[in-house]
Write a structure and sequence with these properties.
mainly alpha, two-stranded antiparallel ribbon, 12 helices, 3% strand
């Protein structure tokens, strides 16, 4: 979970903290500005703020995950040279990407065993459900694209619309990478945490993720390169 103390950003969450620890020549004070501005904009938008607080009440784990995704997405965006405005918008998209899960039901989201086919189909609706609710309060199409497309994959294997390659927005690609990395390296009700490098290796072998973004994750590692045995 990311929170602010003064002008520095801190993360509760072992993996994200480890990633940040090994970033070379990064100014975390600057990153915290984008996170803070994103939170301010969310809280000043009454409609969006209601959903933001509803997610926190709904499930602390999902809320914490969304904060981690926002933080990691901004770090990736900094490496990509995004403008300040786009970094703030990217953080907003990361914070709100799982809002649709509010309507999924905690019985499914917090289930410890395997989901049934019906339950999984319901979970897969959360990007479009979140998008449909938030588009009433957010006009920026990039922010909305990250929410709607964060489960799309470059090879067309994702959902909701089975988009391919550059049909997926840059925000959709960034949030997808941050989402999977944070989720896979965290303990969930249904799984243990996977080692960060194992997750990155799996993403490297996948045809679904932007490998330039994965390279940025790799650059966050202390040795600066991925060793695949």
């Amino acid at each position: 979970m990311a929170y602010l103390r003064g002008r520095a950003i801190f993360f509760h969450g072992k993996v994200v903290r480890e990633v940040i620890k090994v970033i070379q020549d990064e100014k975390l004070e600057d990153v915290s500005i984008y996170i803070s501005k994103a939170e301010d904009r969310i809280l000043k938008n009454i409609g969006v703020s209601d959903f933001y607080h509803a997610l926190k009440r709904f499930d602390t784990e999902t809320f914490t995950h969304s904060q981690e995704v926002a933080g990691l997405a901004v770090l990736i965006g900094v490496k990509r040279g995004f403008s300040e405005e786009r970094l703030v918008n990217l953080a907003i998209s990361g914070y709100l990407h799982d809002i649709g899960k509010i309507f999924t039901g905690i019985g499914i989201i917090g289930k410890k065993g395997c989901l049934t086919a019906k339950e999984y189909a319901i979970v897969k609706e959360h990007p479009i459900v979140g998008y449909r609710h938030l588009k009433n309060f957010i006009q920026d199409e990039e922010i909305l694209s990250g929410i709607l497309q964060h489960h799309e994959r470059l090879d067309g294997s994702g959902y909701v619309d089975q988009m391919w390659g550059d049909e997926i927005s840059e925000f959709g690609k960034v949030i997808a990478v941050a989402d999977v990395f944070c989720a896979m390296t965290s303990v969930r009700a249904y799984k243990s945490a996977y080692p960060p490098m194992q997750v990155i290796q799996q993403m490297v072998y996948s045809e679904g993720f932007d490998h330039e973004l994965i390279d940025i994750l790799v650059s966050f590692c202390s040795d600066g390169k991925l060793k695949v045995s």
